[in-house]
């Protein structure tokens, strides 16, 4: 059978991993710069921990894990006979792969709240799984890089998270647009349109605005039972570009006005600091996850057409589903896979992510190969990574191998080098060669690397 890989998943070779580590380390360094500490949670959670936190569409994308052993022996016979998938799941699956990192984080906080100091600031870089239809920038298995703070309702943290986005994407040499909105502002549109009870239907439709356009969004809202008159008011609301136009638009919308005040406070913090990326108010920004309650953020590339490469927001009551209320949190996530694709398309990865090792030793004969092996041990003991070609093959073959691996420095060793202990190092990019004696070899290699 010909080996294949599952759709929505990817293999990563050495160069891919070095490039991904560049992204992860950049993000991690900024997280720690702002005082966030690391956390890891299991890949699997109880299914009841995950369900009901992401809305109906999110729940449909959960990967369920079958119970151990003969899982059908305890299956619901009625659901099995009627081919009722939803009814059957509860009896054959009690675990699921995590959909995101925020819900497991909330579960961790509730389980460990006695040992934590609030506000508690954490970051998490781990894979998540979603049973979505694979396409460009959308995978079934992908890494998220999350940063959250829980235990404070201060809007200073919303501004801090915007700065983290700004810092990371500036360091990655990407041009982005950071969109900001507030779920309360969206609720204010629903209040003004008189459809508070259909708020979720409205936001689910609005979350697809960039993908399907305004006309299709209106059709979806109508399918969800929202009147044409209310739809007209909703579309008028999402046409607002200036935050200062909100008070005049809102009619009997106390929640909407609260969202307006929160946004003004966040923007006032940000107006006092330098923002290198583009920051915009986008009233149509909805963020599909149902647990957001306040400010919401989303980042898109200005250079490559792709979905969001980051997003997040305030969640005031996520921990209440685990038995702990009045514990507000706010967080953002970086879409590492999409960021990778953007950097790759723009050819923005640093050159040092292309090389597997900085130096390789090539040998002209068997005696030189033995010498190379010993010399490599000395070089590695000084903390310099290097490789040794495993046989004294033709030099053309060895050089082709070094070039194919993008190794920048080549040391060729023959009988003369073994006797004199003076080694010629070739810089592959320029072709320049430098003779280095053994007494200054390590110091000189460090300077070249």
Features:
449 residues, alpha+beta, BirA Bifunctional Protein, domain 2, Rossmann fold, 2 domains, 8-stranded mixed beta sheet, 5-stranded mixed beta sheet, 18 helices, 16 strands, 42% helix
Structural summary, described in words:
The chain is α+β, with helices and mostly antiparallel strands and 449 residues long. It has two domains: 279 residues, Bira Bifunctional Protein, Domain 2 (BirA Bifunctional Protein, domain 2), CATH 3.30.930.10; 94 residues, Anticodon-binding domain (Rossmann fold, 3-Layer(aba) Sandwich). 42% of the residues lie in helices and 19% in strands. It is built from 18 helices and 16 strands. An eight-stranded mixed β-sheet has the order 1-5-6-11-10-9-7-8. Helix 1 packs across helix 14 and helix 8 runs antiparallel to helix 11.
Which structural class is indicated by helix and strand composition? alpha+beta
CATH homologous superfamily annotation of the largest domain: Bira Bifunctional Protein, Domain 2
Provide the low-confidence segments as ranges: none
Tell me the strand order in the biggest sheet: 1-5-6-11-10-9-7-8
| Beta-strand share of residues | 15-25%
C-alpha termini separation: 45 Å
Largest sheet: 8 strands, mixed
CATH class of the largest domain: Alpha Beta
CA radius of gyration: 28 Å
Instruction: Quickly give the CATH architecture of the largest domain.
Output: 2-Layer Sandwich
Structure annotation, total helices:
18
Overall number of structural domains: 2
């Amino acid at each position: 059978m010909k080996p294949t890989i599952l759709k929505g998943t990817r293999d990563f070779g050495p160069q891919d991993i070095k490039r991904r580590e560049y992204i992860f380390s950049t993000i991690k360094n900024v997280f720690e710069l702002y005082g966030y500490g690391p956390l890891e949670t299991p890949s699997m959670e109880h299914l009841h921990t995950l369900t009901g936190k992401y809305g109906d569409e999110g729940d449909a994308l959960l990967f369920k894990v079958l119970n151990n052993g003969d899982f059908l022996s305890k299956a619901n016979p009625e659901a099995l006979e009627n081919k009722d998938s939803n009814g059957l799941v509860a009896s054959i699956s009690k675990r699921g792969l995590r959909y995101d990192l925020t819900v497991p984080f909330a579960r961790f906080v509730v389980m460990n709240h006695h040992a934590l100091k609030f506000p508690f600031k954490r970051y998490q870089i781990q894979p998540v799984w979603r049973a979505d239809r694979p396409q460009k920038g959308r995978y079934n298995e992908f890494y998220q890089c999350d940063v959250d703070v829980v235990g404070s309702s201060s809007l200073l943290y919303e501004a801090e998270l915007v700065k983290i986005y700004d810092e990371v994407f500036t360091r990655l040499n990407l041009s982005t647009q950071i969109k900001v909105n507030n779920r309360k502002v969206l609720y204010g549109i629903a209040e003004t349109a008189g459809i508070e009870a259909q708020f979720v239907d409205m936001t689910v439709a609005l979350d697809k605005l960039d993908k399907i356009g305004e006309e299709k969004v209106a059709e979806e809202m109508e399918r969800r039972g929202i009147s044409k008159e209310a739809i007209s008011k909703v579309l008028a609301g999402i046409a607002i570009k200036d935050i200062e136009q909100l008070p005049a638009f809102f009619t009997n919308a106390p929640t909407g006005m609260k969202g307006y005040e929160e946004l003004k406070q966040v923007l006032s913090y940000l107006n006092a600091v330098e923002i290198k990326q583009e920051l915009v108010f986008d009233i149509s920004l909805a963020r599909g996850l149902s647990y957001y309650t306040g400010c919401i953020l989303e980042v898109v590339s200005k250079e490559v057409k792709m979905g969001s490469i980051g997003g997040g927001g305030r969640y005031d009551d996520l921990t209440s589903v685990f038995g702990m209320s009045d514990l507000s949190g706010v967080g953002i996530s970086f879409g590492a896979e999409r960021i990778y694709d953007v950097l790759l398309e723009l050819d923005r990865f640093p050159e040092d992510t292309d090389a597997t090792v900085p130096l390789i030793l090539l040998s002209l004969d068997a005696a030189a190969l033995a010498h190379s092996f010993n010399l490599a041990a000395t070089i590695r003991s000084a903390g310099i990574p290097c490789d040794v070609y495993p046989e004294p093959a033709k030099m053309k073959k060895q050089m082709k191998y070094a070039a194919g691996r993008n190794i920048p420095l080549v040391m060729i060793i023959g009988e003369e080098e073994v006797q004199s202990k003076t080694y010629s190092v070739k810089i592959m990019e320029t072709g320049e060669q430098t003779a280095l004696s053994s007494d200054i070899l390590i110091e000189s290699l460090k300077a070249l690397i």
